[in-house]
Design a protein that fits this description.
Chain lengths: 317, 331
């Protein structure tokens, strides 16, 4: 792996981790209000998958969307400001954590509705085909969305019309408090794609290189006009579902065992062992990321709130 | 104002709902719960905490995230002898199962010539206040008052929440029971002993003589604050809490208007096509002759709910706007 590329991937993952830790801190201090679903622990999925896309490719995101937004080129100050509901936010403070979107970067948006963006991804796939642009779409969604009607409707549509969409399930074992085991009839989630004749694969979502390899394969497949695919990335969210979650449905031992597979530590180790980066370089990188997060936080906190007139703006064109 | 026959205790709105579920499940084993995260998690707002331990997994069923099936399956169980209490975590998600509610739940008894009944309660919550943005802050009650065949209940106090939920569970009709996310922690007195509150009875929450203020759910609290302030200026406001939108207690409304001749309707939902539009027209049809001033509405802005705390506040009524509207009807 090229040094530059390694730094890019590691830096993005660190940005997400530190961004989420910062949001958690701001929530605790009531500087950030409302809910925020944090992506810490799952960084390798968003960063790995999006790193093989072209800048003009599309993604759709979820209620746990900070990681996708950062990986897709979102600017940290604008994202932070959005979460604080500030006028300088990427959606002018109107969307918030649950609705981060940046159309200029191909991010068709986070979504407060579980499964809410699967249709959007499918439609973007139709548009790409009709406009003959060779773009591809990654549709991110959680294991919880697998039991929504729109998951099935979308996969069927995409299969029939050979749409260039990668349906990427972030399987973090739980949808809020309900485990995949308790909610979903099939144990091997890739089997869901069988019903639609869509090729499927599962991958270690804590290993950024594994994610990249798999996504690259299905992105190429889509670009070549071969149609949709279904990828299950096994991962884990470190924080509770949201701030009020006491995590009674999982054990501290389980949490610990997943932290031992931490995607940032794992990748850092590989880079050191492969003589791509030195430990000091990684420490230095972490420090630089921290400075950027602090700057973004300062920007967001000092930014003005929206003006009252904004209430009625942007409803119609 | 209420006179209690028995001893009372102070509990939260959340506890009141929990007690209602507990008592009805204990009373009738056909009552069961089916929804997302109601088991070990105890519900997104903690309403079902402890019920799994008391009644077991068969009667407190955690489901997958499948709103359409939750409602459809609730209906099927209700038609065949059970009394399900299902839950849609936020009313914002109800679009996913709207076809089930509108075309199946609400119509099936009528379409089948009265040959079936649907003792189904759909609990949900709505409203703003937590700056959660457009997918977690809506007030969609007016969608449902437009659907004949389903009742719509919206309690504002712990007393009403408990009594109305118990009655709803015993009712043989489908009921949409809409709670408010900012009320769960509010406290109030409820009797120690069992009580029920009939559906379709509004309650005068404050007596007054100059203006009738009609409201429901969380807006009751804002309206009470506004009335306190107006009283200092010598303006006497009567507050009617509708408690259920279907059936709507037009009688209580008219009786009050006969006395005050002035009306302000306070609602959190979007103004256009909202609950106030219906209530206002009921007044025009039934009590026009008693009005000395045009009916006023203080309602939510016609926009998706913005995230920013400052815009969220602006988008719904507040005490100042209520006070202003009351004064305007007195001009
Ligand atoms: C249609 C709908 N139902 C329920 C919810 C409430 N809710 C928000 S996130 C969530 C769990 C989602 O789990 P999953 O899809 O696995 O994503 P994760 O949170 O694990 O990333 C639930 C139940 C919602 N937002 N939308
Ligand atoms: Mg999940």
């Amino acid at each position: 792996m090229e040094k530059e590329e390694a730094i890019f991937l590691l830096k993005k993952m660190m940005q997400i981790r530190q961004f989420e830790d910062k949001i958690s801190e701001l929530l605790g201090k009531n500087i950030a209000q409302g809910g925020s679903h944090l992506y810490a622990g799952e960084e390798a999925v968003a960063v790995g998958a999006i790193s093989v896309l072209n800048p003009d490719d599309y993604i759709t995101s979820t209620h746990r969307g900070h990681g996708h937004a950062i990986a897709k080129g979102g600017k940290l100050p604008e994202l932070m400001a959005e979460i604080l509901g500030k006028a300088t936010g990427v959606c002018k403070g109107k969307g918030g954590s649950l609705h981060l979107a940046d159309l200029s970067q191909g991010n068709l948006g986070a979504n407060g509705i579980v499964g809410g963006s699967l249709g959007i991804a499918t439609g973007a796939g139709i548009s790409v085909k009709m406009r003959k642009t060779k773009q591809v779409v990654i549709s991110f969604f959680g294991d919880g969305a697998l039991n929504q009607g729109i998951f099935h409707e979308s996969l069927n549509m995409a299969a029939k019309w050979h749409l260039p969409v990668i349906y990427l399930c972030e399987n973090n074992l739980y949808a809020m408090s309900v485990s995949v085991k308790r909610a979903t009839a099939v144990e091997d989630l890739t089997r869901r794609a069988l019903a639609y004749d869509i090729p499927a694969e599962k991958v270690d979502g804590m290993d950024i290189l594994a994610v990249r390899k798999a996504v690259k394969k299905w992105v190429d497949f889509a670009r070549e006009g071969k149609g949709p695919s279904f990828l299950v990335c096994n991962t884990y969210r470190y924080y509770g579902h949201s701030r009020s979650d006491a995590r009674v449905y999982r054990t501290r031992e389980e949490e610990k065992s997943w932290r031992e597979k931490d995607p940032i530590i794992l990748f850092s180790k590989k880079l050191i062992e492969g003589n791509v980066l030195k430990e000091e370089e990684i420490k230095d990188l972490e420090k630089k990321v921290r400075e950027k997060i602090e700057a973004a936080t300062k920007f967001a906190m000092e930014s003005p709130l929206p003006e009252p007139e904004a209430l009625y703006e942007d409803l119609y064109v | 104002m209420r006179i209690y026959m028995s001893k009372t205790k102070e509990i939260t709105y959340r506890q009141a709902l929990n007690e209602a579920l507990f008592e009805e499940m204990k009373r009738d084993e056909k009552v069961f719960l089916m929804a997302e995260d109601i088991g070990p998690y105890g519900g997104a707002y903690g309403v079902t905490l402890g019920l799994l331990e008391k009644f077991g997994e068969e009667r407190v069923r955690d489901t997958a995230i499948s709103e359409a099936a939750i409602i459809g399956a609730g209906l099927g169980a209700a038609m065949t002898g059970m009394r399900p209490v299902v839950e849609i975590m936020y009313i914002d998600f109800i679009g996913i199962c709207m076809g089930q509610i509108n075309n199946q739940v609400a119509k099936i008894r009528y379409m089948f010539g009265g040959k079936t009944k649907v003792p189904l309660v759909i609990r949900t919550e709505g409203g703003t206040g937590r700056t959660l943005g457009a997918h977690h802050s809506q007030s969609l009650e007016s969608w449902f008052i437009h659907i004949p065949g389903i009742k719509v209940v919206m309690p504002a106090t712990p007393y009403d929440a408990k009594g109305l939920l118990k009655t709803s569970i015993r009712d043989d009709n489908p009921i949409l029971f809409i709670e408010h996310k900012m009320l769960y922690n509010t406290k109030g007195e409820v009797p120690e002993e069992e009580y029920l509150i009939p559906l379709g009875q509004a309650e005068v929450k404050r007596k007054g003589s100059d203006v009738t203020l009609i409201t429901y759910s969380r807006m009751l609290l804002y309206s009470l604050e506004a009335a306190d302030e107006l009283e200092k200026e010598g303006i006497s406001v009567e507050i009617i809490d509708l408690r259920s939108l279907i059936p709507l207690d037009v009688k209580t409304i008219i009786a009050s208007i006969k006395k005050t001749n002035r009306v302000v309707i306070v609602e959190e939902d979007c103004k256009t096509g909202g609950v106030g539009a219906e209530v206002g027209m009921q007044i025009m049809e039934n009590a026009f002759d008693y009005l000395d001033a045009p009916i006023k509405r203080v309602a939510g802005a016609d926009v998706p709910m913005p995230k920013s705390p400052i815009l969220e506040k602006l988008a719904i009524p507040d005490k100042e706007r209520i006070v202003k509207a009351v004064k305007e009807t007195l001009k």
